[in-house]
Amino acid sequence: MLNMKVGESVNEYFARTLAIVNKLRANKGKIDDVAVIEKILRSMTSKFDYVVHSIEESNDLDALTIDELQSNLLVHEQLMKTHVVEEQALKVTLGESSGERGRGRGGMRG
């Protein structure tokens, strides 16, 4: 139920998750940040798998704050977006240099 949705941004997911956590804390009492961090890491979409693994391996989850986790994931989200834009620009550039630009359907008839 609390999984990150495909196409959802890190900020949107964190806002939704933390709203639920805050409601639970108001009703049930203490839910520690480590439990929230572990749940967030388990529920990210598959495109974040390598990032999640990296965070789990390089950080002490007991010392990591929710804000630090969000910052780390935001940086990686921006890198992924930048990579996609650069890849699309490269495809356009390569297509133009191979003579695809300006060709209409059917070619010239004479």
Describe this structure in words.
The chain is mainly α and 110 residues long. The protein has one domain. 65% of the residues lie in helices and 0% in strands. It has 4 helices and no strands. The chain has helices spanning 10-28, 33-42, 49-58, 66-97. It is elongated and about 60 Å long. It starts with 9 loop residues before the first helix and ends in a 13-residue tail after the last helix.
Question: What's the mean pLDDT score?
Answer: 83
Give the overall shape. Answer: elongated
Helix content: 55-70%
Fraction of residues in β-strands: under 5%
User: Helix- and strand-based class?
Assistant: mainly alpha
The stretches of 5 or more residues where confidence is low (pLDDT under 50) are none
**Tell me about the biggest sheet?**
none
Tally of DSSP helical segments: 4
**How many DSSP E strands?**
0
Radius of gyration: 22 Å
The H-and-E topology, N to C, reads as HHHH
Q: Could you give the distance between the termini?
A: 64 Å
Q: Total domains, how many?
A: 1
